């Protein structure tokens, strides 16, 4: 079934936050995690994964944290999603468990259509297009 993991969800929203905070400074994991309402340790693992993919830069120390890599300032949601979850499955079962014959599946074309629509949409959306909440006070207004 088409599924986006919690880690990919965090990654996309964290990248949107970091896009809104572009500058020379680094952003602390605790600040980002507070705004996303998630565990700082879980978020740190996700962000470090994005560092390994070259999407983020990190720095240790009192002024350390994470920031967007220049090459990924215009990253798409699809790039972030695939860095975390890998590509969407080409074939799958909308019912979750393919018990019937997949070659003659009556939902097969629907799965392919939904998959392609999701891929196309995630490819179109840049992390900078994602508007984070600011009225709650968890995140500052986006640039």
Distance between the termini: 36 Å
Q: What spatial order of strands do you see in the largest sheet? A: 1-2
CATH architecture of the domain at 6-86: Orthogonal Bundle
* Major sheet summary line: 2 strands, antiparallel
Q: What is the CATH superfamily of the domain at 6-86?
A: Winged helix-like DNA-binding domain superfamily/Winged helix DNA-binding domain
Strand content: 5-15%
Give the overall pLDDT as a whole number. 84
Structural class: mainly alpha
How many helices does DSSP assign? 5
Q: Give me the strand/helix succession.
A: HHHEEHH
CATH fold-level topology of the domain at 6-86: Arc Repressor Mutant, subunit A
Please report the first level of CATH classification, the CATH class of the domain at 6-86: Mainly Alpha
Number of strands: 2
Q: What is the helix content? A: 40-55%
């Amino acid at each position: 079934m088409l599924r986006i993991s919690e880690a990919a969800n965090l990654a996309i929203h964290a990248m949107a936050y970091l896009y809104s905070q572009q500058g020379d400074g680094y952003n602390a994991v605790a600040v980002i995690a507070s705004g996303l309402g998630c565990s700082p340790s879980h978020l740190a693992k996700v962000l470090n994964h994005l560092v390994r993919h070259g999407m983020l830069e990190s720095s240790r120390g009192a002024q350390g944290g994470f920031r967007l890599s220049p090459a990924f300032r215009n990253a798409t949601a699809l790039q972030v999603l695939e860095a975390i979850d890998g590509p969407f499955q080409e074939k799958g079962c909308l019912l979750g468990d393919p018990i019937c014959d997949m070659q003659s599946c009556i939902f097969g074309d629907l799965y392919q259509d939904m998959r392609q629509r999701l891929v196309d949409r995630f490819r179109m959306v840049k992390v900078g297009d994602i508007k984070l909440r600011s009225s709650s006070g968890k995140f500052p207004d986006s640039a």
